[in-house]
Amino acid sequence: xxxxxxxxxxxxxxxxxxxxxxxxxxxxxxxxxxxxxxxxxxxxxxxxxxxxxxxxxxxxxxxxxxxxxxxxxxxxxxxxxxxxxxxxxxxxxxxxxxxxxxxxxxxxxxxxxxxxxxxxxxxxxxxxxxxxxxxxxxxxxxxxxxxxxxxxxx
Length: 154
Fold this sequence. Notes:
The protein is mainly alpha-helical. The chain has 2 domains: 4-68, Arc Repressor Mutant, subunit A, CATH 1.10.10; 76-131, no CATH class. The chain is 51% helix and 5% strand. The protein has helices at residues 4-22, 29-36, 40-52, 77-85, 112-128, 133-137, 143-149, and strands at residues 56-59, 65-68. A two-stranded antiparallel ribbon has the order 1-2. Strand 1 and strand 2 form a beta hairpin. The longest helix has 19 residues, at 4-22.
């Protein structure tokens, strides 16, 4: 399940992606917040994380703001999810990027909990691994439905 923070990040990137397609100008944080329906106080921290990851750039000054600098097709949703929310695996022993052996596990090879979640997780991973911001902008794999139907939990 994605957090509210991740939902805000996707909405902000969709606003910036729409703007990039329109005329590419930088948007002030107030405009991004208004268009995405995201509280400005949360957005400042989220945009900083995304900027530090090299997905957007910020400029100061009168015509400053934030702009998408990566092509939307190169903005990986699962990588964004990892950036904003951390590991996406349901168990630490299934994570590719943040693997950790479960503290109470005696043998991963025979762990029934790991086995039960493994197939489900890999199916999920295969489904989202190729999802990009471009897909969401086009209304592809879930598109707007992805954002509107996801429950807001954090």
